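Researcher: Structure prediction, please.
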Amino acid sequence: MSVKISPSILGGTFSNMEKIISDINKSKAEYIHFDVMDGDFVPNLTFGPKFISELRNFSDKIFDIHLMINRVEKFLDEYINAGSDIITFHCEVNEDLKEIITKIKKGGVKCGLAIKPKTPWTEIKPYLNFIDQIIIMTVEPGFGGQEFMNDQVDKIKNISDYVKTNKLNVNIEIDGGINYKTGKICVDAGANILVAGSFLFNQGDLITATNKLSDNFN
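Model: Predicted structure follows.
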């Protein structure tokens, strides 16, 4: 199984974004992960569709957009039009999930659902037939640099087993506390996409660190 790496730009410095995107372009990463936070759904504020749209001009990598926001449907068109390849939103939002999934797909964009650590995996079960990926949070969403929550490994296994048993074409992406060791734990449990932010940026050379993480599994 091929494991894809999705470096999260949240781990870098925004004033250095041109070099960060350039380095990811040169690396073996297939995705670029955008953690969109609204200061409401999570206690942090990051960036919006304009930022994504501007960076779209500098990379052909898959733009992996993770919306940690409320009022998803209200802002959806802006994120679709910004050049997103995959838009993942949280199953915990108080909106019609099926309606949002349909709207994302109609916009010609792949769709994912994200799930917080405390949410039972069965909450997303009714939607797995209709989405392209699931992001399993292995930290509490909102801030980078948190430690991996080992108690989420069973959730990865349960979702992976369900996807395999039902022959669903759904990628399993893990977001939070990923490094060489925790990445292996997740891949062994059934994950095939790893988001890494602080860990990659703390290694010194982003290209080398990203390639090393990729080589660990491919």
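Model: DSSP finds eight helices and eight strands in the chain.
Researcher: Thanks, that helps.
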